[in-house]
Amino acid sequence: xxxxxxxxxxxxxxxxxxxxxxxxxxxxxxxxxxxxxxxxxxxxxxxxxxxxxxxxxxxxxxxxxxxxxxxxxxxxxxxxxxxxxxxxxxxxxxxxxxxxxxxxxxxxxxxxxxxxxxxxxxxxxxxxxxxxxxxxxxxxxxxxxxxxxxxxxxxxxxxxxxxxxxxxxxxxxxxxxxxxxxxxxxxxxxxxxxxxxxxxxxxx
Length: 204
What we know:
204 residues; seven-stranded parallel β-sheet
């Protein structure tokens, strides 16, 4: 069984987590041995969405029904997610990358270090340009912050300049990326970050 990079993807409901996973899988699946774990409270909706869009074969996508608070399943008691990752590794012994999407959560949610090697946190401009300065572990401590849906900033009266300033203030030297994942804007930067920080060779 090879060493497998585990990337946690968190963020509020509707910020673009599943869209990010779909884009990443489509860009990487022909070059890397990958799989996905999704978390939903009472359904497997995100897993079904990925399957419906032929993101990966069905044996490479596992949906976890967390019940209760979704962030508990990625932090305080990550056993269901760890079991899902182990299941995928048993099915695919040469698995190189597994991405774990949290259920829609709040700004205080974080991934347990035993579950995730790298953490990506996704917010979007529709929630307002004040979001970066509200802080919380997702904003301040994630390995990469993605500010998504920049294409609608003007329509929701959100200033990207303010978000840029506040993200720098809250994150210090930690990186962040402005993105429009629907159209693939910022995707290449995100992929380069995962490959570099996850120490995966660039085979694309």
